[in-house]
Specification:
globular, 44% helix, 4 helices, 3-stranded parallel sheet
């Protein structure tokens, strides 16, 4: 279900947001957080892209993890400091 559909069909929703890690070392910790949050059954969970795309490396991967837990996910996309091609590539990854 699209986020817009979730918001229009429910007058009150609870959503949560996670931040991608800055390093590989913390990725599993974020994944565990996603699993714990998902058990609370929020309407959706969003994953940030980081200011200027600084922590964007794992955004799409974490959004997929959220979806795999059975919760709607929303990946942020920041276009600052990005080329048109890189934005297009990110959109395609998010849509996959």
């Amino acid at each position: 279900m699209r986020i817009s559909e979730i918001l229009s069909s429910n007058p009150v929703t609870i959503s949560m947001e996670v931040f991608p890690p800055k390093s590989d070392v913390k990725l599993e910790s974020v994944r565990e957080t996603v699993r714990e949050i998902s058990r609370l059954r929020p309407a959706f969970v969003s994953c940030t892209y980081g200011a200027g795309g600084g922590t964007s490396r794992y955004t799409v991967e974490i959004a997929r993890d959220i979806k795999d837990e059975g919760v709607a996910s929303m990946a942020h996309l920041t276009c600052i400091s990005s080329t048109r091609d890189s934005v297009h590539d990110q959109i395609e990854k998010i849509k996959a």
